[in-house]
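ARCHIVE CARD
CATEGORY: sequence design from structure
SOURCE FIELD: tokenized fold
FIELD CONTENT:
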């Protein structure tokens, strides 16, 4: 069996191909394990860090785009309500009723004193029903109401604190500019933080302004959006650099968090605290002044989106009493004037900031520029190691293949060619001479079988010659070694 062709070929294939491949694979796995045990190379950490920076920046930009689309749709919604026939027709009727009661001759304070409990005359039940139905279908709005040109309430979905709105800044700006977005404020009637979208109402024929509509949009949508993206980003394998830096971190390690922040530094959404009321829109928790958030200040500088490394000074993020790690921060701003221009004139945008913060547990403190960056010496050294390993493996496989082909030709093709040549000579009548091969195994057995056939043919030829009439029978020499 040791000289069997199948055994030889299997042994050659195993020792020349599989053994080197298994050895190389095992050595490479052991090398990677050693690197993981002692911490991955700085180049590998840097590559993972750069990839995560891009991923976080894309997440922040994607969230900003989603919020921009949502806000644009809500603006269009309010504009549609303000142009509804049931709303536009209700304004002049209410204006006439207000004048009939002599309200236009009174001061604002006198009107408010007269309507301490009632906040409208209830002259437009159809418009109120229409707006209530719209709010029901678009539940992100806490309330909607509109006034006539004097600022007197015409119809509302929820009670308001004042009967006259013309002394409010939002009313005056919407009346003069046609559209106004207010600051985020707490709406006590709806018990939510909200932003006002105010739209001027115009006469259908003359296009003259006749009133103002105000829609109170809850900012709860920003918190829902950030929760959804944060859940997707926290899935296993999404952020690589933290895993490479410390693969033994448990579930209590600091995770990435999303923040939505106003231009003044106040928090609209914060996933880490689950948008706790004690932190949302609180003046004492400000990105620009709070010591635990000042590391995010760079988000307000430079481009519309980007990423950087910052040192967080928050004792809550200490790991096992060690110094708090640096953090990888990505940011993106909401769109500006050009995005809203097709719908609203001269609107600069909401100017909110999306910030994504992830723990950077590696030793890196500087994040190179993401676009067009040149790899450093440590990255080139790591890649050089990988390339050397790959090149050595390829060379070993190539040499093994060449040696395998040579052995196959020597062990298989050469005996086959020799036997083929001998059989061809026998076809031409050259049957003398013993068939022998230096090879062993199946080819040796085949050569012996052919030699026995040759001997049989030789004996049959001699017998025919001796029995043929008129032929002299040659005497075969004794002990002829060629037979």
């Amino acid at each position: 069996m040791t000289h069997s062709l199948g055994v030889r070929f299997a042994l050659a294939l195993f020792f020349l191909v599989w053994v080197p491949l298994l050895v190389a694979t095992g050595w490479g796995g052991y090398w990677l394990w050693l690197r993981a045990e002692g911490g991955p190379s700085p180049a590998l950490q840097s590559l993972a860090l750069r990839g995560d920076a891009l991923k976080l920046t894309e997440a922040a930009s994607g969230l900003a785009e989603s919020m921009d689309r949502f806000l644009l749709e809500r603006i269009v919604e309010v504009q549609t309500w303000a142009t509804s026939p049931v709303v536009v027709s209700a304004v002049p009727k209410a204006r006439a009723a207000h004048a009939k009661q002599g309200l236009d001759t009174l001061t604002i304070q006198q009107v408010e004193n007269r309507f301490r409990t009632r906040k409208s005359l209830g002259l437009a039940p159809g418009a109120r029903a229409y707006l209530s139905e719209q709010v029901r279908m678009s539940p992100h709005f806490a309330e909607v109401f509109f006034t006539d040109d004097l600022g007197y309430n015409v119809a509302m979905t929820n009670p308001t604190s004042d009967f006259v709105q013309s002394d409010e800044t939002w009313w005056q700006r919407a009346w003069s500019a046609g559209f106004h977005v207010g600051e985020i404020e707490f709406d006590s009637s709806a018990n939510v933080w909200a932003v006002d979208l105010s739209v001027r109402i115009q006469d259908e024929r003359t296009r003259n302004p006749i009133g103002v509509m105000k829609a109170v949009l809850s900012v709860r949508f920003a918190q829902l959006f950030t929760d959804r993206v944060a859940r997707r980003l926290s899935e296993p394998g999404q952020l690589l650099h933290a895993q490479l830096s410390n693969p033994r971190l448990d579930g209590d390690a600091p995770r990435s968090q999303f923040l939505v922040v106003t231009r003044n530094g106040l928090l609209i959404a914060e996933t880490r605290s689950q948008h706790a009321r004690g932190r949302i829109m609180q003046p004492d928790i400000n990105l620009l002044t709070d010591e635990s958030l000042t590391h995010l200040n760079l988000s307000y500088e430079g481009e519309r989106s980007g990423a950087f490394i910052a040192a967080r000074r928050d004792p809550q993020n200490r790991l096992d009493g060690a110094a708090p790690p640096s953090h990888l921060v990505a940011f993106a701003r909401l769109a500006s004037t050009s995005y809203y221009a097709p719908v609203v004139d001269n609107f600069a945008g909401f100017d909110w900031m999306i910030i994504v913060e992830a723990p950077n547990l590696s030793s890196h403190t500087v994040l190179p520029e993401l676009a067009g960056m040149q790899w450093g010496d440590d990255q080139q050294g790591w890649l050089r190691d990988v390339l050397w390993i790959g090149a050595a493996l390829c060379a070993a496989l190539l040499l093994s293949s060449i040696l395998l082909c040579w052995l196959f030709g020597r062990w298989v093709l050469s005996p086959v060619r020799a036997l083929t040549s001998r059989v061809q000579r026998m076809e031409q009548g050259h049957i003398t001479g013993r068939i022998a091969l230096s090879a062993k195994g199946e080819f040796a057995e085949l050569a012996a079988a052919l030699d026995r056939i040759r001997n049989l043919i030789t004996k049959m030829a001699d017998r025919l010659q001796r029995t043929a009439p008129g032929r002299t029978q040659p005497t075969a020499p004794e002990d002829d070694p060629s037979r």
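CARD ANNOTATION: DSSP finds eleven helices and eleven strands in the chain. Residues 1 and 7 are 7 Å apart (CA to CA).
SHELF: design records, drawer C
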